[in-house]
Write a structure and sequence with these properties.
Elements: E1 4-6, H1 7-13, H2 18-27, E2 32-35, E3 38-42, H3 43-56, H4 64-78
Antiparallel strand pairs: 1-3, 2-3
Amino acid sequence: MPNLVLLTKAAEESAYSIVHIRHLVRSGLVRGAKQGGIWLVDLDDLKRYEEEMDEAGRAKYITQKNREKQAESTLNENN
């Protein structure tokens, strides 16, 4: 069963701001919903996401485009 809480409570319990948590819910990265104008988030799912991001470290910032650029520059250096 989801542990739905208000965004203000979720922000207090995590390292994320209300705006960022709302973005995560809208993007489907964290379970939650807007009910009657009030945003709710599954606190357990938010904590899971936060742990995943902590474990990913800086790697979470490396996009596919940046990976391709890095690979290309490595090839150019080796030639």
